[in-house]
Amino acid sequence: MEIRKLNADEQPPMALLLLADPSLKLVDEYIKRGQCFVAEVENSIIGVYVLLRTRPETVEIVNIAVEENNQGKGIGKQLVLDAIHNAKLLGFKTIEIGTGNSGIGQLALYQKCGFRITGVDRDFFIRHYSEKIVENGIQVVDMIRLSQDL
Ligand code: ACO
Ligand code: ACO
């Protein structure tokens, strides 16, 4: 598997991006401003993450996803670690990530990769998403924010 930057002439892997974020409007908006990286096996894209500069010296992983039939094999962890590595190379001092209150696996993964919880953006998913979202039998309402120093 190779993790590489998406080329300027390539289409972003929308199906994967929508797996992590069901809002086409938000994905469309940050994909233009951010840097998209993909995990590729035999010319097939099976994973993605997007880095977006949010404040001076701060970058956020705004989207990360692995194709459903390839989840649970350590690819997500490789992508998070690659994002941290690239954020450092790009000179950022802090990396952030956020996930829904229902994201038990995501919270496990991000903390295993060194992120610490910094706060809760209450009702984020009520304010920004018109559809009700349910994951692990839990309604997604709040955004858990995590960060780590680079
Ligand atoms: N309890 C404890 N640990 C868990 C749990 C759990 N319920 N679920 C996962 N983990 C751990 C795994 O054990 C593993 O740790 P380990 O390597 O120490 O064993 C780690 O979390 C992640 O495992 P991976 O196999 O690397 O993860 P995967 O390849 O499945 O990728 C991802 C994770 C990206 C979240 C994937 O499941 C996915 O695409 N999900 C759908 C989209 C999504 O929710 N994206 C994130 C939204 S938030 C955002 O985009 C910023
Ligand atoms: N992912 C998704 N859902 C989960 C997970 C997981 N990793 N783990 C548990 N759940 C869900 C279960 O599916 C279940 O939901 P459901 O009924 O919709 O299926 C629910 O959480 C709880 O399941 P129970 O079987 O009722 O829980 P249990 O009898 O195991 O009791 C408890 C939970 C009290 C935490 C028990 O595991 C325990 O004693 N743990 C050790 C002590 C402890 O940690 N106590 C809490 C410390 S915090 C405090 O005391 C305030």
TrEMBL record:
<dbReference type="InterPro" id="IPR000182">
    <property type="entry name" value="GNAT_dom"/>
</dbReference>
<dbReference type="Pfam" id="PF00583">
    <property type="entry name" value="Acetyltransf_1"/>
</dbReference>
<feature type="domain" description="N-acetyltransferase">
    <location>
        <begin position="1"/>
        <end position="136"/>
    </location>
</feature>
<dbReference type="InterPro" id="IPR050769">
    <property type="entry name" value="NAT_camello-type"/>
</dbReference>
<protein>
    <submittedName>
        <fullName>GNAT superfamily N-acetyltransferase</fullName>
    </submittedName>
</protein>
<dbReference type="GO" id="GO:0008080">
    <property type="term" value="F:N-acetyltransferase activity"/>
</dbReference>
<keyword id="KW-0808">Transferase</keyword>
<dbReference type="InterPro" id="IPR016181">
    <property type="entry name" value="Acyl_CoA_acyltransferase"/>
</dbReference>
